[in-house]
Model the fold of this input.
Amino acid sequence: MSEPIRKGFHAIRDWTYDHYHYAYALGTGLICQSLFEPSKKAAALSWMASLAAGALLEPCVNPHRQVYGTSLWRLSPDHPEVALTFDDGPGEDTPALLDLLAEQQVKANFFCIGQQIEKHPQLLQRIAAEGHMIGNHTYSHPNLMLRSPAQTHHELQKVQDLVQQICGLAPTFWRAPFGFRAPWTHGVARRLNLKSALWSINPRDFQDPGSEVIVSRTTEFLEPGVIVLLHDGLRARQQTLEATRRLIPMLREKDYRFVRLDQAHA
Ligand SMILES: [Zn+2]
Done:
């Protein structure tokens, strides 16, 4: 892909992320118009139905909405605390990340996937032994909007059992893959004594935008009580590692404390 095309693609992707309401309205409007042409009435009615469906679905994908159940997506703004959270591990970059956190005396939060835990049980033990919080990020990382209550229960229960067997403790927080929850998902998790945790800052490290972009997207929205979403598993995460290496001293300089979600001022 040539450089101008790549930049254009990234600009559209970032605009869509920041303005997804408009992108949805525009996209469904264009689709409805092309499907029901030349009937303006049919196009308008189908577009209105799409917008209504979007309004019902939006709380399922927006990490800050509490319509179908509550989630911890930010900590108390009255304390200079920041929670670094790492999803999708344990993975090949987790040891280097743990080395960095130990060297910097930082406690963090790891939302682990069951299938990754089965591949790296010693890493899970190391995460726990070094004082970090282990959260449940489901067994196979599915889109839970497409999973029944029974399937969701199975996804969460399996990780509770794995962590209990390997570390002798069960997670108290869980995080939905991609942040996607169905209206029934919160109830299933509550019955397993799991509290939902999402995030306030998503620097989108999964796009591999470069460590400096991950740092700037994080510091841009920095304020007391933020929960930062990062990743340490499923594939190489060197950019996240490098960004974390740069973020820690920057945040320390501003007197932030790095906290576990279960020990923070909520
Ligand atoms: Zn994930």
